[in-house]
């Protein structure tokens, strides 16, 4: 059973780490495929909630990063969930084009041959 | 197209962070549901690959944590993937019982009412 939380209560549940970031998983809302993992700070989470477009915090560039702002490969938000202990977010998204900067549909295209 | 990597090459791709950890997403291999996010160090990854049972690093207890070792709610590995930049793993698992310590099927049972 999924509990629905008003936006302020939802944001209040997030435990940002020492760098002010929270791990965020993006999953294709239709196929269920896990597309990528990125990080959000509070501002990027607020922007994502306000605009309905996934916006992350780029740790390499140290700046806000609206997914697809240069590539056009945007992520429209379908659902945003938070885990039991508040340190991970799960975005269910409608992905335009490939999610990965390599052009692969998902960033997870290499697997252990076990 | 998924690339298969022999185990040593796979482990060699992992970029462990300053604490020696890598973010790890567990997904139900059948339903596609994202179950939880946890962390692995190199030893837990090797144990996971060797035993076929998900073993994480507990940051709160600072010890290896074979998922289900006390609860019985184990995760049998179906696939292990790594993302394009090597800083996140994705486990596709066969979950026994609920994945979440709260008894919920997944740790993601709270969502923003947007």
Based on the model shown, name its key terms.
homodimer, 114 residues, mainly beta, 4-stranded mixed sheet, two-stranded antiparallel sheet, 2 helices, 8 strands
C-alpha Rg of chain A (nearest Å): 14 Å
Tally of separate helices of chain A: 2
Strand order of the largest sheet of chain A: 3-2-7-6
Secondary-structure element series of chain A: EHEEHEEEEE
Helix content of chain A: 10-25%
How is this structure best described in words?
The structure is a homodimer of 114-residue chains. The first copy, chain A, is mainly β and 114 residues long. The first copy, chain A, is built from two helices and eight strands; from the N terminus they run βαββαβββββ. Chain A has helices spanning 7-13, 42-51; strands spanning 3-5, 22-28, 34-40, 55-58, 63-66, 75-82, 88-95, 110-112. In chain A, the strands form two sheets. The first copy, chain A, has a four-stranded mixed sheet, covered by helices on one side. The radius of gyration of chain A is 14 Å and the shape is globular. The N and C termini of chain A lie far apart (35 Å). The model of chain A has no long low-confidence stretch (mean pLDDT 97).
